[in-house]
Specification:
7 strands, about 30% strand, elongated, five-stranded mixed beta sheet
Length: about 210
């Protein structure tokens, strides 16, 4: 048999082996996938110098999908972290800025809602339970800690930045996303309710004067 006749058989065999090996690859658990996605937010503390360290992080939809029931599905954020490293504690200052894709609470149009906020976190080393501070801004770690995961804190700080009412002043934008038809209906309903309220107040005053 010639070499040219052998080649297709060798290639087919190699292809079957590769497909077999691919199928035998174990599937990653959701926990493994989450840990890999959040690895970018784990700080190797031992490599930081004592004093101030400036760190920057990017956050997008791939980050939020690993948090169950997250109020943010789509968003793009920059997180600037000032990490003050001291011998007896760490002081972390977070600056959060970005946008969250959501519906406007006023006109229901899809908007990129600007979010921003400043947050602080104090990391102290393990002490007796009775000596621990009771504060949401203080966490405790072992003195032997070499890596510190800030993913959960970034998530919570971004969520805390969401306003109660999801609206913003978009009129300064070149193409405001407002649903003008919906806004006109709301204004009309508001005028009707105001007129109705005035009529009711007039009737009450008339009865009081009789």
């Amino acid at each position: 048999m010639s070499l040219s006749e052998w080649c297709p058989k060798i290639e087919n065999r190699q292809l079957r082996i590769e497909n077999f090996l691919y199928l035998r690859q174990p599937e990653k658990s959701s926990y493994q996938t989450k840990m890999e996605a959040q690895a970018a937010y784990v700080i190797p503390v031992t490599t930081l110098r004592n004093g101030q360290n400036e760190l920057d992080f990017k956050v997008d939809w791939r980050f939020f999908k690993h948090f169950e029931e997250s109020p943010i599905q789509q968003g793009r954020f920059d997180v600037a972290l000032l990490f003050d490293k001291y011998t007896d504690h760490w002081h972390l200052h977070f600056e959060v800025r970005g946008v969250m894709d959501t519906e406007c609470d006023r006109c229901l149009a899809l908007i990129s809602l600007p979010l921003s906020g400043s947050y602080e976190l104090f990391v102290k080393f393990d002490v007796e339970e009775k000596d621990r501070e009771r504060s949401a801004e203080v966490v405790y770690v072992s003195r032997e800690t070499t890596h510190f995961d800030i993913a959960q804190f970034i998530y919570e700080f971004i969520v805390l930045s969401i306003p109660v009412t999801r609206t913003y002043d978009c009129q300064s934008e070149a193409s405001p996303p407002c649903d003008n038809e919906m806004l006109a209906r709301l204004d009309q309903q508001g005028d009707e309710m105001s007129n109705e309220h005035l009529s009711e107040m007039s009737e009450i005053l008339k009865k009081m004067l009789e």
